[in-house]
Amino acid sequence: CSCPVCRNYTRAYIRHLFNVGEVLALRLASYHNLFYLNHLTKEARKAIAENNFSSFYSLTKEALKG
């Protein structure tokens, strides 16, 4: 992932924050999720504009399964 959270924090550190109940864990997870959803929305809009949404949908669906 190219979001600032994933670039600057390890998964182990974020997991540690969740395990000890730090509020920062929730903030980082929220920021990551918003970044991902924003990116996904941009890509979907781009696929729609290029009349290629069905391919985008199929590829995204497969990527999210595994």
UniProtKB/TrEMBL annotation:
Natural source organism: bacterium (Candidatus Ratteibacteria) CG_4_10_14_3_um_filter_41_18
Name of the protein in question: tRNA guanosine(34) transglycosylase Tgt
GO terms under biological process: tRNA queuosine(34) biosynthetic process
Ranges of residues in domain tRNA-guanine(15) transglycosylase-like: 1-58
Keywords assigned by UniProt, alphabetized: tRNA processing
InterPro entries: ArchSynthase1/Queuine_TRR, TGT-like_sf, tRNA_ribo_trans-like
Pfam families assigned: TGT
Top-level lineage group: Bacteria
PANTHER family: QUEUINE TRNA-RIBOSYLTRANSFERASE
Gene Ontology CC annotations of this record: cytosol
Keyword Heme attached: no
